[in-house]
Structures are given as structure tokens and as C-alpha cells.
Amino acid sequence: MTDLTDLGIKQIRDGVRAGSFSAVEVADAFTTKVSRAKALNAFLVETPEHALTAARAADAARAAGETLKPLAGVPIGMKDLFCTNGVTTTAASNILGGFTPPYESTVSQNLWDAGAGMLGKLNMDQFAMGSSNETSAFGNVISPWRRADGSNAPLAPGGSSGGSSAAVAARLCPGATGTDTGGSIRQPAAFTGISGIKPTYGRCSRWGTIAFASSLDQAGPMARDVTDCAIMLEAMAGFDKKDATSLQLDVPRWEHGLSGDLKGKRVGIPKEYRVDNMPAEIEALWQQGIDWLRDAGAEIVEVSLPHTKYALPAYYIIAPAEASSNLARYDGVRYGLRDLPDGAGLQDMYAATRADGFGTEVKRRIMIGTYVLSAGFYDAYYTQAQKVRTLIARDFERAWESCDVLLTPTAPSAAFALGEKSADPIAMYLNDVFTVPSSLAGLPAMSVPGGLDAAGLPLGLQIIGRSLDEQGVLNAGLAIEERAGFAARPEAWW
Amino acid sequence: MSVDTKTVKKVASLARIAITDDDAERLAPELSQILGWIEQLGEVDTSGVEPMTAVIPNSLRLRDDVVTDGGIRDALMINAPQAEHGFFTVPKVIE
Fold this sequence. Notes:
The complex is a heterodimer of chains A (494) and B (95). Chain A is α/β, with parallel strands linked by helices. Helix content of chain A is 36%, strand content 13%. Chain A has a domain at 4-260 and 478-484: Amidase signature (AS) domain (Amidase signature (AS) enzymes, Alpha-Beta Complex). Chain B is mainly alpha-helical. Chain B has a domain at 5-43: Orthogonal Bundle (Histone, subunit A), CATH 1.10.20. Chain B has 3 helices and 2 strands. Chain B has a two-stranded antiparallel ribbon.
């Protein structure tokens, strides 16, 4: 019998519908695998009962001859940024230690309404601030991948959705939720050889998702292939009146619309993404991606996005500014940690609580955000960054006059070793150089695996699309997937 | 932009984060480096450019001014570090 944990979302959904196996068998297989994978540190909380309850409901519905829900029988992992009713949710920070939400985020509720069950809450960079999963208060996630040189150096699974990427790559779950503020779905997907899509800003409700930078935060799925991402995104997205920036639009039937035939489509190659010191292997993979899309029928055109180099510095003003404001709520009064030194007053309690509860990177970003928003600096930093953001969005608008989607590498390197970049914040921030511009413009973008580097580690290709054109992004992703034939997987050592 | 320890302490105080002198010594060069890197934005000519307020055009919806939620005091209090008689409690603010 096939190992059920080798199956993806579509295969599980279709298999449960056809009665090839039961949903409970699937849930059992995954919960067992999760419980034996502690070495990866991907899960902060395991919730086998949640997965089993959803599975029993799916089996009962099938036995009763009912139409099964879109994700009936599919167990997934939930990034710990999503509030889950009655299940500890900490955003991987001590300041939310033990926080148990009495409510459910809209995205997770949508998934449960679609019949999915939860295997557990996934580790991540603290408050989604990081690109390597090294800022979690609960320890690093270790990538299931290892270099082929036998060194066994523990590698970063990417971040901030590093628990999600590691869990999907290690076949601990067929799909997981991620969130993406500047690349936090796409970069970890690239590092671990899986697919992930950040939809257009406003497609997925932010309600009940712990806020980092509200004008950028978007949820999206991470899964083994493009089809599974389409299926899961359909369940996650949708209008929510509880989120003021939620888009009041019907959710397209992305899975139904999938086609890797790109005849009549134009693919733009932005010349500014040819950055200095790009590894030759990334350059070669990019060229390979161009050839694949041409083979799929697309016309390739060179385009220019002249403000690309300013996207990262603009992001590192806007995101910390919004974070410093969003994270002001952690005050030791209503929930989470309270540190009350002897004889301390209210102000001292705030300062001690926040000093204790936030990790180093979170404090660093709150400080930067506070600085750039402070009196006398606001216009020079924040207003200027928002103007540059307008120019970056305008660059993309101009590009869409000559192309339908853009193709770029997802990240400037393969996965690095844990500890390799953590001493230099800017070196870490540069990991998001290819993902941040589309985040600033609110555009849909996805990463799909393209191949392996010389060390045997996965490399990803990124597709960026027009606002609301997730279908175009998914289709180009599918065209690459069909040609890349990426079948590599990490050998189980955990 | 060079940030000195005095500025670091002022920013930390605005951010309500307690820091030690050692923290301030460590943070000053770190923040200087990051802010120095960010400052390249000054090169961009943004005259006549409006700052972005929304990434995709989306007008704010209005709703009827009616109560849609509430009556969940106990649920809201369950995570309080300290609560008494249905109130969040804090250290004495006024002597």
C-alpha cells in the first residue's frame, strides 16, 4: 500500500472521495509522522484530535452519501500566526506565551469550513520577522534538506514561514498555511523545494492573523505543487467584512482554470533583477525557466523596473514602522506576558514586559520603526518610503503594458546554514531582494521549485502577476512545474 | 545617519522597551548601519509623487451603525495576566 503521507492535497481529496482510503487513515498516517519528527522542531503544538475529528466528519459524510466538502479528509499545518480557538497561539514569541485565543481567524475558519483538519501549529520567525526561522523564541526549525557534501550542517528552512516549509517538504503535512509580508511564503518555499503563493493583497482576510505590517501582510498556501496551492488558496480566500481591506470579490475557481499552455502570453524578464554577485547557478536556472516558458508557448520580453534597488530600503522603513505601531498592543495588561518588577509603576511594567517578551530582531524592528516615525524624521523616512512605494507600483504598471507575468529567481541563493547570516541584519534582509518589490505593490506572486544546485539543495523560480491575476501566476507556475519535473525530496534523517 | 546611545535610549523609551547601557552600546552601531543603508532612498526624485495609501484601489465600506458584537467579557478576560472582578488590573497609577 502507498504511504499516505506521500500524497498531496489533490490526491488525498480525490482518494477520500473515491473511497480508496479513509480520511481517518490519512489523519492517522500524518499525526504519527508529525509525532516522530521532533528533530525538525517544525511544530510548536500538535493537535492530532483536531485532525482526527475533521477526518471522522469526512468519513461520516461519505458514508451518508453526502457531497464532500472541498478539503474533506485533508489534514494541514497552521502557521502559528493564525489565531486558533482554544489552541495556544504565540507567533513564536514569549510575549504571547500561553496565549489561547477565544476566537478563530477567518483564514483558518475558512479551511475548517472546507473540511480540512489541523495537525498542529507551526513554528516560525518571531512575529514573522526573519528569513531563516532563527528568531523564534522556541528554537530554530531545521530544514529537512542537507547538503550533498555529507557535512550535515543544519540548514535554514527559510522564513518566516519556516515551520510550514519544513513540514511540507518533510511530508509531515500535504499543505500548510503561510503568511507573506516581504517574501515569507516564497523564500521558504524556494529553500525547501515546494510551491507557495502569496495572493493579491486583500484576497485573504487578515482578521485573526497576528499583525506584523498591515499594508503588506497576506496569507497564502504552501504545498507540494501548483495544483495543491490552487485548491488550498480557493478555500483560504474570500471576502470578510471583519477586515476593512478585504476585497469584495468572488473567489475564482483557480483549480478549474489551471492550464500550462501559455500561447499568446508574454513573460517579462526584469533586467534590474540581474543583481551583482548572483550565483551562476541561480542565473542558469533563471535562463532555464525562460526556456521552459518559451517552450510552453509564451513570448519572452525584456522589461525594466527602474526602482527595484530601492524596494528593500523602502520596505525596511514601512514594515518596521507598521510593526512598531501594531506591536504597541503588547503591554502586559490584557494578554500574554507581564513582567512587574518590585515596586514598579505602570510605565516600568510596560517597558520591562516588552524588554523580556520580545526577541532581539523584534526589538530591533520596533526601534527602527519608532525612530523613522518620530517627530522630525517622519517625512524624511516614512513619507519618502511611501512615495518610493508608489514609484515601485508604477514600474509594475508600466511593465504590464508589454507583458502578462514576470519571471525572476525567488531568492539570491539556496538555503544557507543556520547561524551563517544571523550576525548581520542587512545580509539577512538582502535575502528578500526579489520578493519584496511585489509585496510593496500588493501583487500576486509564487515560487515553484526549478531544480537543485551543486550541493543538492532546491532553487526556486518566482512568477509575479498583475493585481488579481492569480490564475496567470498559477498557470505560468504550472508550465514550469510540468517541464522542471522536480521530484527531489529530502532523505529522512529525523 | 549616526545614532548615538542617547538617541537609542530615547527611542527605546518612546517604544516602551527597557534597555541597559550595554544594550544601548550594542544597538547604536547596529541601528546606525541599518539607517545608513536605508538613507539611499534620499537619492530618489519623488517630487510630484503621492505617497501610497492603498496597494489596490479599494474604497472603505460603510455599515449601519448598530451593535454587531459584544457580551463576551469573560472570554476576553481569560488571557489576562491579572484580572479582578471583571476588570484588567494594573499597578497603581496615581498615588
